[in-house]
Give the backbone structure.
Amino acid sequence: MTRRVFIAALGTETNQFVPFPTGLRGYQEHGIWRGDATRHEPTNFTAPLHVWRKAIEARGWTAIEGLATFAAPSGTTVRTVYESFRDEIVDGIKAALPLDGVLINVHGAMVADGYDDCEGDLLSRVRAIVGPTVAIGAEFDLHCHLSALMLDSADVLIGYKESPHTDTMERAAELFAIVADTIDGKVKPVMARHDCRMIAQYRTSVPPISEFVTRMKSFEGKDGILSVSLSHGFAFADVEDVGTRTLVVADRDTAKARALAEQLGRELWDNRDRYATKYLTIGEGMERAASHNQGPLVLADRADNPGSGAPGDSTFLLQALVEREIGPAL
């Protein structure tokens, strides 16, 4: 009998410190696909579904495609909007039964009115439908909240390793390979996370944090370790699981997964002053601007970044430029 795997996507990055919600239009602007995302050009968020469909069909298995939608980073998602999308995915899974596997691309930092942990809520409902023997895998953005409910509900969670996010398709292929081996009975994934007790930013494309990513990868595929992820966390949220966590997926050995997650987490903590991205104060930024004479200089307010859901309307840098009479400035 051919294997049947359901694929879907739902996510956004929620900034809980902005005064406006994310409504239906936010998802419409980014795209809502109902079973046909893989018939369109891949976006950064739908690309994993393209990887999964190709991999599923290459094995002669059957792919059942559900809802795929994403909203650009913004405020808390309206409750009815989240619930309708969640229920659409859940209903699609019910209609597709029996299934051997479920693969969902999520963000990890999605918050809706009444739901601090949208990913945990979604995955737990999927688990309740498919039962304990169906393999569930989820791919997540490394700027996420890694909750216990997510780990309890899924068999495999794998996060992007790179920021900027250049490896979404690579991680999707990695996730599929582990889930496929789970379906075939070759592995039995178990997961463990370690709370690094940090809220920071990490630019994985540059050293020294790039060296830590290389070290994470060095454990994979050896001695029963299936995958290692670093959840950087998303600072502009007010939820229980905010912050940096390491995540290890091992084959059958929870103690091994827990030990490596703690080992890597402590390494990150011990090197926090080296690894975390350092930001200038406004005063330091003004000193840099006043002494700069080599062409255009860009000053960015990290906490008012539209890429993190903020409105991009702060005037602190403008006020500092005016007070110090630095210019010309745009």
